[in-house]
Structure formats: structure tokens, C-alpha cells
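Forwarding the complex inputs:
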Amino acid sequence: MKVGIVGAAGYSGEVLVKLLLAHPHVQLAAVTSRTHAGKPLAAVIPALRGADRGLKFVDSDAAALAASDIDLFFLALPHGAAATYAKTLVPAGKRVIDLSADFRIADLATYRKYYGEHHAPELLPSARFVLPELTPPAWKTEAKLVAAPGCYPTSILLPLLPLLKAGVVTREHIVVNACSGVSGAGKKAEEMYLFVERAESMKAYGLTKHRHLAEVEEQLAVHTGAPTVIQFNPHLAPMRRGIATTITVPAAPGATIDSLYAAWRAVYAGRPFVQILASGETPDTAHVVGTNRLDLAAVHDPRTGNFVITSAEDNLVKGASGQAVQIMNLWCGYPETAGLL
Amino acid sequence: MKVGIVGAAGYSGEVLVKLLLAHPHVQLAAVTSRTHAGKPLAAVIPALRGADRGLKFVDSDAAALAASDIDLFFLALPHGAAATYAKTLVPAGKRVIDLSADFRIADLATYRKYYGEHHAPELLPSARFVLPELTPPAWKTEAKLVAAPGCYPTSILLPLLPLLKAGVVTREHIVVNACSGVSGAGKKAEEMYLFVERAESMKAYGLTKHRHLAEVEEQLAVHTGAPTVIQFNPHLAPMRRGIATTITVPAAPGATIDSLYAAWRAVYAGRPFVQILASGETPDTAHVVGTNRLDLAAVHDPRTGNFVITSAEDNLVKGASGQAVQIMNLWCGYPETAGLL
Amino acid sequence: MKVGIVGAAGYSGEVLVKLLLAHPHVQLAAVTSRTHAGKPLAAVIPALRGADRGLKFVDSDAAALAASDIDLFFLALPHGAAATYAKTLVPAGKRVIDLSADFRIADLATYRKYYGEHHAPELLPSARFVLPELTPPAWKTEAKLVAAPGCYPTSILLPLLPLLKAGVVTREHIVVNACSGVSGAGKKAEEMYLFVERAESMKAYGLTKHRHLAEVEEQLAVHTGAPTVIQFNPHLAPMRRGIATTITVPAAPGATIDSLYAAWRAVYAGRPFVQILASGETPDTAHVVGTNRLDLAAVHDPRTGNFVITSAEDNLVKGASGQAVQIMNLWCGYPETAGLL
Amino acid sequence: MKVGIVGAAGYSGEVLVKLLLAHPHVQLAAVTSRTHAGKPLAAVIPALRGADRGLKFVDSDAAALAASDIDLFFLALPHGAAATYAKTLVPAGKRVIDLSADFRIADLATYRKYYGEHHAPELLPSARFVLPELTPPAWKTEAKLVAAPGCYPTSILLPLLPLLKAGVVTREHIVVNACSGVSGAGKKAEEMYLFVERAESMKAYGLTKHRHLAEVEEQLAVHTGAPTVIQFNPHLAPMRRGIATTITVPAAPGATIDSLYAAWRAVYAGRPFVQILASGETPDTAHVVGTNRLDLAAVHDPRTGNFVITSAEDNLVKGASGQAVQIMNLWCGYPETAGLL
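Prediction (whole assembly, four chains):
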């Protein structure tokens, strides 16, 4: 199968290129970039020197891509831009996996509130938000367009959703603190993201209004059937990749650490990309960076009655490009782990 | 005035040596260390090359120190060891500022639960826990021995106490997430603290049972007159110094962001070492490292009804040695900012 | 083919485990460790959670390994220890690839001078030092035991040897400065390698007497037929992995930057793991970490008459475990790039 | 004495503001910035919160500054811009200490070759390049304008000049490798200087044509009376501050490590800001960052006949603003160490 990537100059685009070049079952046939059109991949992604198979960035417009023999496209574009490509590619019968926010939110009003105008609302009904371990498998046949989840949402929903559904935690007083590596901000030449500013620096940002909230809370509502509001406190940590998320949530009456772990095991047993650590251990971003894995653990605090749940993932892999490849694998019938660590 | 430091081989000891060498009103007359006795300060603390005024580490026992003409001692020792020195120095009429946990907790049973046996319980009545901006000034005359607060407690109590006392936040569902630089663990040659293990790594640790909880909750109870239980989630961040703390707490009925800021201003206006940032800004550890300052800010989240409160400090300065010097300044009648940035 | 790893608790052992688990043509059948015997691989190498194929560390002695059905062993042990295993495995007909220094130096007197007593000098005649791009191919049939090159030597010999052999540089006044990530020192719980000591720190070390000199100078002599003495100045840089090496060497009379590049291309054209950058570009460790590649470039300085040659590699991959796998691939007839990026 | 800073938005400007605010003998009376005019210092330099003494950035032009009652100005501007200010301030009788390159090079042709047109060549005769430990003291009365040395040049000239003058090293085959923290590039919002690009990355840059060469070689010629050409290989290291420089130079006939150290001691004995380490030790940037100190050491390599000389400094302090304050102290008759660590 031939696949293409639209827009690959950012950090998650770069990871996606590497994963697809090494994938055993698909052929990376096109990588587009307006800025870099004509350049070899390795000229822009030096990690690929000698390993870019002679591929060059192309400046194909959506119509040209729609007319090509490529079967599936990954959109690694800013929100807004993604919808404009999807608008052409989906009607042309191409499978599309979008890494932007454009189709993550089913509710148009919510999308508009967080992101502004939507450029292809007509595609929303045939789009599916797919968190591979949790989304019921019907999406594989229903979807024409798949929205891959955001990095923070993946690190929050995988730990939390099974617990809410199993009723082992309450729906109130959920507090999520997450610490992200700087690549989460994208490749932006702004003073704030300079090495000298970020090294040896730790700070909260985006309090009360981070865009990923929209996606998290919609999924919580969809999966549990009731509106759920969370406190989400993102932080910027002095590292390149990785998200460590810590969720504090009151235990439901009667719930124990064993019932919490049972709820997780019921969902994640045998799933290669979610690993459950013993209670008392804590996930470390350094152990998951470069893999498509999310590590999970929890403790119960008898003093407060809370569970404290910790997760770690690579924001660019399980939080973006790796998960997109995992979605492709499942959608197209390849082994779930093909081309992924 | 002559001052001495007992035990100065760790990270906060090193900072203390530098601060006292540069202090305009006191003379650093002795620095003890069993391991390094006989060596020039600069041989162990190379940052002091050419600037250690010829001082050498000495291996004085407590009796010798008690017999010296030094007026005030800082104890920069592990808990347990500090009490054994205090036992001799305090009865000899020396002022003692202890940077360990030994005298931070007035309740002996609590101390024993978290730290084991206490080696000088008879000194507890004349010891005072002093958070300079919050402890009522009577300590200056009452105390024979001052316990300087821990790093995490400083970053939690300074933001939280005025709000609890003013009734602008609830006493329930307080969730504290804190991210500390690696120097917080001390100078321990253990695999976990190696550069290769910690660089580019973020993780929670010590969940539900961190020792600093004892001190935080006792102070909350002392200042507010009621037991208060918090969720404290410490994290290790890939940086050398600094603590960024994020506190989520429900607003009390009727409380607004203005009433929160008013409560802070009532306590911290004119205090040089607590700086209040505008709501919407967030403190950054990089802006406070090297200073004795704690930066503070808060936002109100109308969706959850919570306040999210953020603080940043240097764990080795405002969280340890700088605050100890600030205590000395106040105790001995020097300007509060003498020798401090 | 079944392969085993003897001693895999260090940083290069960990990388070797990952490479061999993912290798398409061999089966990792045993991983030994005295310290960790009985534990699953993932308990010691958390990056392998869910991906260690159920393998556990075993405490097999050399005799048991010699009696097993494993065809090839990698020794990832300290020097000295490696020889004692090789002593049993080689006579038993096992192929051995040694990542230690024990068989890198053919001259016994030189070995003793730098490393002390040798525990299996009788194996030296059947051992070969193999730098895959440079060692003449006879080793594939002659060797019973292969010494994989050290990290610094790889970063020096690959740039320098073709130039000395082609006569485009002089043999005098060769100055090598190299900056290594901290993993180069191994997983040692010593104060010097703590995060707080090494972060934001840059320093030279091991001047005039680094052990890798022995190996570099022997290879220079073997390949060029004349003794060659270099100045080797290693440095420790605040990063986990990677070596950036800068070699200053006078151009031979008449040599130009074109003749230098021609000499490189004659040797490295078509070799996937040595990439030659345009003159004026400089290799960056960040572009090679995680790959088995060494990047190369050079400029001519008309003011001094020197060439300045720069290289970058991952000390744990091309400088250790990746190169060992590359050697296995060539020795056993697999594609050179099998299992390597 | 009142002092002013023209242009203080960069990294060395920020350090200069901090040093002058804390200086015991001068009053920082004006800090100019076109971009930030009207803002409190602490709004741009958050490390100064609560400690900026109410100072605001002003947008004074050169004429207004010349008419003020400020006695001495520091120019912390890009080259070119500095000369245009000096043009007005010097004739008005103000003392000027310039941190740019504009007056570091006495030879106009050399300046033009490296930097382009000079905007105030008429000031060159009354300008002095001052490396406080080495420049003969006549500058204190002759100079109307002082050029503070660059960061790399300071780290090269202090080790090398006394040795060349004493004849203990040769003038040929001098190879300088230097590794600088990222702040050396200034506060530039360019992709190359982003955290994600520079963390965990080491690379050479600017080979054969770095601008600081002009200044180094002119000083070598001025002090030794003969043209001296060096190989200068700068590198970018993944840290914020600090320069570690390693110089390889052949020993002069008969020179020993003792004669080298004697040459250094003859010049640096009693100088607080140059510290000589024992042969075999190596300076570490972490030990000098935050101080105005340069640490020095050397070894002799009997195998090559070279001395290998290592130095470390803080590029923003001894390499820029601290040295500028040291110059002011000497020029104005304050103790050399006033306001400096």
C-alpha cells in the first residue's frame, strides 16, 4: 500500500516520516511541504542522511494528491489547513488520518469555541476520533477519515476512561497535572522556546483554557454518557520529548486499588502499547520516549481518599505519529505493532 | 557577629557557605565537615576558588563548637544528626538555625511516624518553625533554636496559608503537584540520580508518603486551627535547581480572584521575597533560581470552581539556605535582605 | 541463528539488547547478568516493557554458555572480564564479538601498559579488530573472535585513516578534540556523574593518557605502516549520548579540500553508515543519535594550511553496539544494514 | 558615580544590569532600549522582580544621554550600533565601555574585513582594548573609550599570551578548540537555537572564519610583536552559559610544565579573577558560571611534545559583562573586585 504525508516539516511530521520509511507493509510514496518542495528529505531531516530512499519533498496541491495512486494520507498540518486537504482527499476515496485537531471534536459549536471556523464541517459525520485501545472497533468500517488524538488527551484518557466507566472513581474533583517536553509546542522560532529560556526552567502555562480540554471532555462525555469537567494544568518541562501526567481523583465509594487495577486490566490486558506498572511504581518519560507505549500506575491515598494516577508517553509517538501509524495498522489489517516499538 | 556552619558538603551547605561569605554583617568563622576536615573550602567547593578567604573545613565536635566564640550556628546536616548537635549548642547559649527536619515538627508522635526516634525532644519547646513572611514575630524573642522550613513546604505554605486563613479557599480537595530539580535529592551517588538517568526524564515519586507532608499539614493546622489534609504529588524534573508548585483548590463560596489576590497582598505587600504576578501569568523557576524569592500567581477557573495557584522558588535558596539567612537577618536585627538577592 | 549477550546491565548492553530483539535474522536466546539473574529484561531495562519477549537474565557461567546451542556471543563486559569468557567460548567454536578493549590491541606490551595483565593472550592471533568500513575483508574468514572498536577510536579512525593512506594529510601535528555524552563513562554511581554535577557543565578530562589512544595509534600504524602519534583531548559534554570529534591536521603539500573529499569518497561511497557532508557543513550529534551512522565533513583553512575535520556519531550505536551488530551482519552474511538504522 | 547601559535586552545586557544594580559604588541611573522603552526592568528581566529599584527602560537618543549627568556608559549593543552611540558620547566627555566588537580591533582594514564599514573610525586612536590582567596600565589614563574583549578571546588570550611572551610555547601549530554555551549566540529567535534543536546536541560551527579570530590574532601580534596565526575551532554545547577552551601548542625547546606554570604565576599571582589549577586538574565551566573568574590548567604530553592548556569561564561574566565591570572598577579607582564574585 502506498501512503503519503501532507506537511512534514514539524516535529511529529519528522517522526512520522521515520516510522513510515521503516514500516514493513507500506510504501511512503509522497511527502509534501510548500517550504521545502524539491529538497531531499534528508536535507530537512538530517537524521535521515543516507536513509531517505531518494525521496524529495513535493509541493502537490490537494487535487494532485487526490488524483495520485496513493491509498492513504496522513495530514501533519496545523488545524484549519488539515480540513482544507481533507475536503478534497476524502471525497476522492482516499483514506485520511489527521493528526491535527480539525476532526477530533464532533460537536461543531465546541470546535468553534476553541479553534474558530471549521473548513470542512460536512466531513464530521464520517470522521471518527480513534484512541485505538478504547474506541469500539466499528470505526474500522465506518470511518472515512480518522482523527488521531492529541498528545495530552492520550495521556489523560487512557488512564481515566476505564476507571470512569467502571465506576471506580468519581466524576467530580478530577485534577490533571501534566508536564510536557518542549517539542509539544512545535517547531516555533519564538523567544520562549529558545534553549537558553527553557533549559533549567519549569513552569505552568495555558491554565484553564488549553485547547486539548475540548477534546478530553468531549470524549469523557461520549464514553461515560455524562458531562465531565476536569481541571487541566499543563506544564513545560526542560526536556525535548515526553509527557508525564498525574491525575488526582477521589475514589468512588467502596473502590480499592485492586478494583482500579482490575478495571485497567480488563481493558488493557494483552494490549502491547499500554503497560500497567505495579502500584507504588511511577512511570518515567525516559522509559517510553522513542516507543509507542503509554505506561500507567496508580496508588490509593487513605489519608485523602484519592487515587493518584500517573502516566508517561512520548508526545511525538503515542501522543501523535506512532498512534497514527497504529491506527493505520488496525484500519488496514496489518499487525497492530507493525513498524512500531 | 561570628557564625558557623556544621556540615557543609551538600548542595544547600554549599549555597549557605557562599551566602555567608558574601554577607555584609557576619563573619563566617567555621565550617565543619568530617569527610573534608583539613581541606580548604575551595578544594571541595570549586566555585569558591580564590574566594574562600583561606577558610578550611574543620572536624570540631559539638563540645568544641559550644566552647568557641561563635554566636550562631547553621546546621546543614541530615535529620537525626542535627538534633545531636543542637543538644549541645543550644544549652551552651548558641543561637541555632537548623536546616534539617529535626525541629520542624512540634508534635513528637508525628515526627516519629515520619522520621523515627528524635534525639533531642527536650529542645522542642524552645524551638520555632519560622517561615519569615508568615510566622508571627514573637519567635524572635522566644526561640533558642529555629527550624528553617523545607523546600516543598515553603513553596506550598506561602501560597496557601493566607488563603486558608482569609477563607477564600476550601479546606477540602486541595491537590498539590510540585516539580523539583534534582538537587532536591541531595548529593547522593546513586544510579537514580546519574545524569544519564535524569536528563530528559520526568516522573512522579514519593506519592502519598513524602516526609514533607508532616510539616505542611502541621503548619496548616497550627495556622488555621483545624486539621487539613492535602494531596501532595512530588515530581522529579530534569533540571538542577528550582521547584514549580501548582495547587488546585476549590474557591470558597463567594470568593473571587480579586479576593484571593487581596488576601495575598494583605500579607505580602512590601515583603521583598514574595512577588505576586498578575493573574494569567505563571511563575518560572528560571526566573527565581539564584534568588531568595518565591513568585506567586493564581487564576480562577469558572468551569470547575477551582483556583489554580502556581509558585516558583529556588529549592536551595528560598527553599533552604537563603531562607535560613533571611531568618538570621531577622533574628539578629540586620536588614531582611542583607546578603540576599 | 541464535545469539547471546554476556553482561547487559550497562548502557551499551541495553542498546545491544534492543537492537538484537528487533533484528530480523537472529534470535536473542540468552542475556546473562550476575546482578540481575532471574529478573525479566524489562525489570532492568524499563524501555522494554511489553517488548522483552519474556526473556529473563540468566547467570550462566562460561562453560554452560559454551555447551548451549547459541552460535554467537556478544561480550558487553568490562575489560579483563571479557577475556575470561572468550577463553572458554572461542575454543568451543562459538563466534564471539567483544565490545571491551581486551582484543582491540594486537600488541601485548601495549595492552599491558594501558590495561594491565591480559587474561587470554593465546587468543590474540585469532582475534581481529574490525572497523567494518576500513578493515580488509579477510577478517570474515580468519577471525574467531572480533574486537569491536571503541567509541572515540571509531570517531577518529573513520575520518582520519583514508586521508593518511591517501597522503592528503601529514602525519605530524594531528590534534584531536572530542566531546562525549556522559553515557560514555558507563553506568557508574559516582558523584562526578550525577545530574547536578554534569548538567550545564563542560570540561576536558583524561588528557595525555586516555586508554583509547593505544587502540587509535596501533590502528594508525597498522594501516599506514608507520608509527603515528596524536594529541587526543577528550571532553565531557552535558548530554546523554553522542560524540563530536574535531581533528586539526596540516594538509600535505599540494593537497586540497577536493583531494581530501576524493579520498573519503573512494572509501565510503555506497557505505550506508558513513555519510559525507558538504565542506562548510558540520556534523551534529543530535542528527546521528539513535542511528549507526557517522557523519563527516572537512574544511581547508588557507590561513593555517590545516584541514579541520569534524565527525559525529552515537557513542552507544556506531561507537559500540550498533557497530557490533554491523560486524555480525557482515560476518554471518546478512545485509549490512539488517536491524540497524 | 552614575552609570548607564545603552541596550540591555540581550543576555549580556541582563547580566550587566544585575551586576550594576548590586554594585556598592555606582548608581545605575539609566537603561535604554528601543523595544522596551517605558517598561519596568523587571517586566523584561523577570529575575529582577522586586529588585529593579523602580527603574524603567528609556528610549533616550545619544544626544539626550550625552546631555545627562551620567558619567559612564556601557554599550551593550550589536556591532555597528555601538559606534554610532560612541560617536556622540565620547566627544561629550562621557567614559564609555563598549561590549561590542566596534573598538576591539585597532586596524581598520581588519575590522572592515570581518565586520564591514566602521561608523566611528575617528575614535579608534583614543580607544583601548583592555584585558584587565594583561593590558599595561597606561590605558587607565589614555583611554576615552574602552573595548571590553569578546568571550572566546578572553578564554584564549589569558592562557596563551603570557606563554608566548615568556617563550615557553611555539608560535606555530597553535590549535584552539572551544565549546560555548548557547547564550553565546545571543537572544535570537531562530530555529537553530530552539531548545529542541540544541538540547542533547554538540557540534562545531564557524570553522576558519569566526569573527573573534580578528581580535585574538591582533592581540597576539600586539603583545608579542609578531604575527601569529591560530586554528580556532568553536563548538556549540548543550548548556546555557560557559566556555571551555582547550589549546594545544608545541612546547618551545627546553620548556617544561614548570616553566609554563612559572610564566602564568608571574602574571596572575594575586589576581583574583584568574585561578591557576594544578597540572592534571581540568577547569569545569560549572565551577565558574556566575563568577568573573577564569580557571586555568595545563599538562605536558611527552609523547607529542605539546602542552595542552585548558580554561573555563562564564561567557556572560568574565567573557562580557563582568569583565566590563572589572574594567570600570579599575578605570574609576574602585577595588577591582567591587560588585563581582
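Chain B has a mean pLDDT of 97.
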